[in-house]
Amino acid sequence: MNRSIQALAFAIILLGLTATRARADLNIALSDVTLAPGGTGTMDITVTSNNSDTLSAFGLELLITPVGNPTSLLQFTTAQLDPYGNPNYVFAGESLGSDLGVPFWGPPSASGTHYPYDTISGGDSDDGSTLGYVTVPPNAGGAYSYLATVQFQAPQGATLGDTFNISLVSNPLFTYFDDRNGNPLTINSITGGTVTITSVVPEPSSLTVVALSGLSGLLWCCWRGRKQGQSKNSLLATGPIPKSG
Known about the structure:
CATH architecture of the largest domain: Sandwich
Mean pLDDT: 79
């Protein structure tokens, strides 16, 4: 009887070990962005792995959070970019969302009422046309490392120096990464995601170019006149040139 209980306990422990969450070391990076008042910015989101994890589906929920006490607001734009055409997209050529013709991002939650904590959700999965999953690379910038680009905007008159964070929301219904067996992958680190309102040095206008050209011409004429005056003074100082013969 005791042996039966021990065998049952061992089986339960073994089952528990095999049913544990998949170990993962996913590293999520969000680019830092500077944005002019009234401008639209884009933030890239990439994923890498320390353990060659496989990915079959993922979701993202992003949240805008003000840093300190800014007087400006930041909101996700209604029109968003799909990542499907990027050759480094995690499911490039094998995107279920692309096959179905659905947008990557859903509409932002704000609708003019949720500022300053605007949110947006999106995601995709492999369509199963090949392996049904991809292997997450160890370095960003290559195949299967690009997740998405999200767009946002600042109002006209936004205060210079105001800062915001765009971060992943810890909600497994909307932010998740599943391996090829459907097991959830964990996130090891999240970096970046800061938006700073800053001024932009404008390109010179056509009027400015004309003014600069006129000033250059005036300076050249002054230099030319001064040069000719110096030549005449030099001739007077040396006297008349002797006549040949």
